[in-house]
Structure formats: structure tokens, C-alpha cells
Amino acid sequence: MRSIKQPGAPVAERIQWVEARGRAFSFTLQAGLPLLEAARRGFAAEGFAGGVLCFGRGALRPFGYVMPALSKTSENAAFYSDTFRPSGVTRTRLGSMTLGMRDGAPFFHCHGLWTEADGRASGGHMLPDETDVAEPFEVEAFGIDGAMFSAELDPETNFKLFGPVAAARTGARTTSRAFALRLRPNQDFAGCLEDFCRAQGIARGKIHGGVGSTIGARFTHGGVTEPFATELAVTAGTIAAGPSGALEAALDVALIDYTGGMAEGRLIRGDNPVLMTMELVLEVLG
Predict the structure, then answer these.
(1) Of 32, 73, 197, 266, whose CB has the highest number of CB atoms within 10 Å?
(2) pLDDT tens digits, residue range 124-147?
(3) Statement to judge: residues 139 and 247 lie in one domain
(4) Cβ atoms of 54 and 137 closer than 8 Å
(5) Are residue 210 and residue 135 in the same domain, yes or no?
(6) What's residue 15's pLDDT?
(7) Domain presence at residue 31
(8) For residue 57, is it within any domain?
């Protein structure tokens, strides 16, 4: 399987996880607010301090983002581009967000694809402090209680990354058992989730959110993304018994690579290793 050498030594625990309770809900992001504050308010209204969300068509202005890029030093295996700030209203096509805490304040990690006002199609990593909601739009969220994503320096990748930590219960209404997860580099995305579910006795699960990167990508429709550095959003995901009875993860994603190439589709199981990180919430259905 493809692998990329990271600047730091791999830690023994390859999946960070915290068990929690959660609930799916939808809400509308308010226009005129920073995207971060609009998202925070939507979760807070349901009693949650954080969680994950996905969205389709939305409108952002002002908007700041970066794309994946090659690293100019040996301090990171890959890095970010300079900041892009397109003028006018940017229209999102899809995106996925993790809402958590960084340096004691709310923060998000959000990847998506969009079309800028001049018609340019692009994608990447949205910047919380440079992005506002231009028009109201609806999102599908999953709040978690008893866990939170917290940004901490990760010695392996030398980035400050979201990982799940235990958190005090807020008393929010929840409907299901859930796990907040972070997958570490150089392990297959699908296989990692399948192994985790087997270890936890989970027969059926649904993925909510899903923000991270893979080392290129190989799709079931035959498409291949060769450039190794990507920004990826999960658009749908399930883990359930396949035809053989063994657990199989079905992972639909959208991504942009460091050359600007975009791709969407279902990942081939066993051939899509994580590059830097993969954050998501796994809802237990059975």
C-alpha cells in the first residue's frame, strides 16, 4: 500500500477514539455571520458544544481558503498553498466540517468543493477567520455529547490537528451511541474503520462528517488521483456486512489534489491510505 514518510515517529495508537452519545439534526446557517459562529450557534441551539456537519449548495462571502501543496521544507510531508480570497459570492457544491475547540475557542476543520463568482471550479480547506455566510443555507449535522474534537500538536505530522477527547456531558438530547474518531497516517481508510468496528462489536454504522486527506485516491469507478496530497470530504459512508458476511466500509468522497485536480466517487477498499488525518463520527446502528 502507498505510504508517505512523516517527519515524526508514528505513535502506537493508530486510531484515536472516544465513545459518546449523539444525535442527527439539521439547521440553517444564518447569513451575515462568520461561518464558524453560524455553525457554533446551530449546534448550541440543540445543546451541543461540537460535532460534525455536511452541506451541499451554500453561499459564502467573504471567503478565504487554501489548497493542498507540496512542502518547501522537511518539517511537513505536505503543506498548504498561499491563501486564496475570491471576490464576489462563492457557491459551494459540497462540504464536510468538524466543529471543535482550538486554543480554548471554537474552531472548525472544513473541506469542500465550490464554484467561485467568475465561474472557476475549485476546492480545498476553508479558513474559519476569513469566511462568512452570504445567504442562509441548510446543513445536516450530528452533535456529540461526552466527546469533543480538540486541536493539539501532533508530533507525527508536525501539524496541529483535531483529535477526539473526552468532554463533560452537556445534557443534550441524544438518540444513539457514537464514536468520535481520528485515523492516523499510512493506514487504509476503509480497512481501519472495518477493524475498529470488529473490535468494538459494531455490526452496522453510519459515518457523519468526515474531513481529512488520503495519499492520492483509487475509486471503484476506475478513476485514479495520482498526486499524493489531497483535501478530502466524505459525502456518505456506511459500514455493514458485505456479500461474504464480513464488514465492508462504503466511503463516498470528494477531493481536490495539490495540482487542482478534483475527483468524486467511492473509494476502493484496501487501497486508500490516510495522508495526514481523517476525522469523523461513527454512529452505531447495530
Answers:
(1) 197
(2) 999 999 999 999 999 999 999 999
(3) no
(4) no
(5) no
(6) 98
(7) yes
(8) yes
Q: Which three cell numbers stand for residue 21?
A: 452519545
Regarding whether 236 and 197 lie in a shared domain, the answer is yes
Amino acid at residue number 158: N
Burial of 66 (0-12, 13-18, 19+ CB in 10 A): middle
Q: Do 127 and 199 fall into the same domain?
A: no
| Domain range for 231 | 174-284
How far, in Å, CA of 32 to CA of 60, rounded? 10
Question: pLDDT tier at 280 (50, 70, 90 boundaries)?
Answer: very high
Please state whether the peptide bond connecting residue 62 to the residue before it is cis, i.e. omega within 30 degrees of 0: yes
pLDDT tens sequence across 39-73? 999 999 999 999 999 999 999 999 999 999 999 99
